[in-house]
User: Fold RNA helicase from Darwinula stevensoni.
Amino acid sequence: PVHRAEEVQQQRSKLPIFGEEQAVIEAVRENPVVIVAGETGSGKTTQVPQFLYEAGYALKGMIGVTEPRRVAAISMSQRVAYEMSLSKDIVSYQIRYDGNVTPDTKIKFMTDGVLLKEIQKDFLLKSYSVIILDEAHERSVFTDVLIGLLSRILPIRAKRGPPLKLLIMSATLRIEDFVENTRLFRSPPPVITVDSRQFPVTVHFNKQTPSDYVEEAFRKVCKIHRRLPEGGILIFLTGQQEVNHLCRLLKRTFPFHATLDSEDNVDSQLDKTIKAVKHKRHKVPLVHLEDFPLVPLDEQTGDEDLGLGDDELLDDDMDSFLSNCQSGLKEQPIHVLPLYSILPSHRQAEVFKDPPEGSRLCVVATNVAETSLTIPHIKYVVDCGKQKMRVYDQVTGVSTFHVDWTSQASANQRAGRAGRVGPGHCYRLYSSAVFKDEMQIYSEAEIQRKPIDDLLLQMKALNIRKVCNFPFPSPPKQENIEAAERRLILLGALEDNGKGDFASGITGLGMTMASLPVSPRFGKMLSLSHQQGLLPLAVWLVAAMTVPELLLERPLTTGNAQTSAGPDKDDRKRLQALRCTWVGQGDSLLLGDAMVLLKAVGAAEHASCSGPRSLSKFCAKYGLREKAVIEVRKLRRQLTSEINLLLPNANLPLDPFLQPPTPDQMRLLRQLLLSGLVDQVAKKMGPGPEREKKQLKRAYQMLGMEDPAWIHPSSVLFTSSPEFLIFLEAFQSNKVYLRGVVAIEPEWLPTFAPKQCNILTPL
Ligand code: ADP
Ligand code: MG
Assistant:
């Protein structure tokens, strides 16, 4: 029996799904696969696991729930534990490198990638009695593959052992892809549609589509706040920097304490605003050292911000800002909250709390708020209609961030957020012609847009050779499968059977790589690192390279309007100088940005031992993202224990301190990095004709590519410009930039050419 607080019981009873408990349980009892479709906020994620628990599904195995986003896995496990008055030992979560699962866990929330790894270890998922694939409409790569795999696992479990049940939960979008796909399920599974008690939302289009949607959003929010009755405002922008920028403007315009009454103060307030507006111009991309990022949705996609393609505010628009700011003094305050995926969890959780008395809630979000989290009290939605997406060139691996129109389906999801508490309004900052003519009806499934190296390796490890025959809800493009297969052969993870039939089997090295919870390249580095005593260093380095945006180019905003006004150019220079002193000269400098990462995480661990808040202070001073430092630590611990399992005599300690590498080790680390980045090599371009010399100053040629590339200015090797280098990422903005740069010696290249490893031999 489950005990719930009175208040919880009352809230539950108001959710649209509450009346469907019987229907859900009966459908699950009678069918192997059931689809539950309902609008965001109807109670699917929080209630369905509880229904199953009370129907006894946790007695003989766990109830597993997958989420494409880490944010959702963590916050939903906490919410369900709270609602059921159970501890986190019973309702737990597991994400790639963090979790609180115990032997007593009954309901386990996890990211979809985690379940895919578990299938590798236990194909029949014997510890589960039910799997719920949540947010299936998001069409994340891993969820798509899980649907395909589970469609094969269920019939086997039906014959052997207690049957496994599958629930696919989705917003009411495009469920035909699952229901009517006879390659997946021979007879179409029943669909339970939750009647959403959605209130009508009036959609208002702009007559014209402004070029600067951040400014337009600001204007719109000011208008709503001044003219319309109470109710929260939710604003959709495309990235973290835009979100922070708009938050700052709104906080200044509608502050909590109107301390400014003399004209002088008003002026200085305006000065600050102008400065804040102007310093937008100088923003330079943040450091991003993620490799092929086949990781859960919330770690990359449009949600992350490299500061590229940033909104710029034009001088002409300044007037409107000023008038807005001026008249904004002493008005009803706005409780402004940002929401994006790399925000620390405690700040993300703020959006669920009631706003302070007398203020209006205003959440400025990226598309995290589109479907996975339901924010209470929202009555007005302001939608810029765009999203930031990472676009890959499948051949060259060069990626770019594009800010582009969302799909009509996403726009409607966003609008729907306004109709949860009562009739609402959605202000679209674009014209209806844009909606009709420029937006696709649905967004493309993630699997069709991204490199699938990681996925392909996982599938080969499951002995699925002909990946093109796999029952994907929507299959990846053949050319993407082929490109990924070629890269994996080059890394030595797949056999080169010489037939070019794209049905290669996995190698021993590939199996080791696949068993590690990092991308194939980093998996290879770890697999080779047991030699020469490199393993402990490699674990630190791979952990630091895997977690995105560990090094910031300037400190994250504190969320405090008063302290965030200063321009950040000096901060950036200071940080850059600091990092250069970290690497010094010689071997250490040649290890380049990898050395910076090692120093950063090593020093952060030392710092965190010297008292409360010492880590925060350290991170603020050295421009590290604190949440990332903690993630690196967790990932390091997880990698350590996985390696100890894999290599029983490795005896890798969970040592919190990093022994700095010796010059010899630095050299070996460079080789180790090269082993995982064999195809990401660049050579400095020789002197050409006089005319080109200037243009191509310090330009590099990437292996197999014609266009020149440049070391990104944030790299510590920017000025020394070595002859040969490897890079973690090639990124296109106004030109192609290489990030995460390490110098290599040309004589190493033949050694590391496809698969041969004379210096280092695989495990
Ligand atoms: P769905 O999965 O159908 O989108 P959810 O089960 O996520 O719906 O949400 C149901 C309700 O629970 C929503 O009204 C949401 O606001 C509320 N809710 C979810 N998480 C929390 C939380 N951490 N704190 C307070 N309320 C929450
Ligand atoms: Mg949900």
